[in-house]
Amino acid sequence: MSATAPDMPEIRHDLRITDTTLRDGSHAMAHQFTEEQVRATVHALDRSNVEVIEVTHGDGLGGSSFNYGFSHTDEIRLIEAAVEEATQAAIAVLLVPGIGTMDDLQKAHGAGARVARIATHCTEADVSVQHFGLARSLGMETVGFLMMAHKTTPEELARQARIMVDAGAQCVYCVDSAGALVLATAQERVAAIAREIGHQAQVGFHGHQNLSMGVANSVLAYQNGARQVDGALCALGAGAGNSPTEVLAATFDRLDIATGVDVGGVLAAAEEVVKPYLPRWPSMDRNAVVQGWAGVYSSFLLHAERAAERYDVPAHEILAKVGELGYVGGQEDMIIDVAIDLAAKKEEA
Prior knowledge:
Blueprint lengths: L15 E7 L2 H4 L6 H13 L4 E4 L19 H11 L4 E6 L6 H9 L4 E7 L7 H9 L3 E7 L6 H14 L3 E5 L8 H14 L4 E5 L7 H10 L4 E4 L13 H10 L8 H12 L11 H9 L5 H12 L3 H11 L8 H15 L1
Parallel strand pairs: 1-2, 1-8, 2-3, 3-4, 4-5, 5-6, 6-7, 7-8
Helix pairs in contact: 2-3, 2-10, 5-6, 6-7, 7-8, 9-10, 11-13, 12-13, 12-14, 13-14
């Protein structure tokens, strides 16, 4: 796969690591990032030569709402702050059609965002077509995000990737939103996407740590054709967190795979910048492991824990039931229904 193909984004090294601390990490922060935290984090990542830094509400542009959780600071202001701090890194934004709008994307571009990451459920790429068209017309780099990739076959995932590339995506990610992919199941999906689009667009991988596979799956993704992977400092992200940026950088360096990232720099960024503001360290506790085991969207964790406290039922039981019912991103409000039903059954017992 050539990184110099006309329609592919420029990648300076063998592999590009995109840091999502300030987007996926927003879930773990209950969307309470301050401008000062964003500035400090971007400054540290930029100085460590991380090429792309994602900044938005955890659920993407327009996510600040009753359903998903209100942001502490308006995301456009956070994007502006990130752009002001970055000297070499591009600032990326996530947009989930149905949550964010075309107008939101235009505002983010106006604030200085240069990479548009358009995310859909793994079988619904067709809803992203107009958003890729707008992003390309604005001159933005375009990345497709096929979320909950474990919910469909490698072959179908590849077909969905084709829809995104035909719409204008320059890279398409296999997104393990539930942290449910385990080694071969991640390999198969990345390889299928690479076979389908590898001569026209790059392939990416986004991992979560719910089953402790994020870093290993990222390495396997690279070996099967991925040239972009995501991480987050201190693993800060939904569920048990993302593949830690600092661990990815160190691991790929050990494998002599060039990322351009200063390993010492991102280790310092994690320890000295992000760790002090963590509300809690992302961990593979029972709730998070159940998410990976049951294939539950990682951002459901805090919603389930709040419902558990309100209705006096175990969060892991809520999550297991959500997995059984097959809920996907955008159905956070239905977690309450599950909790109420479990509470009623508990009273009957």
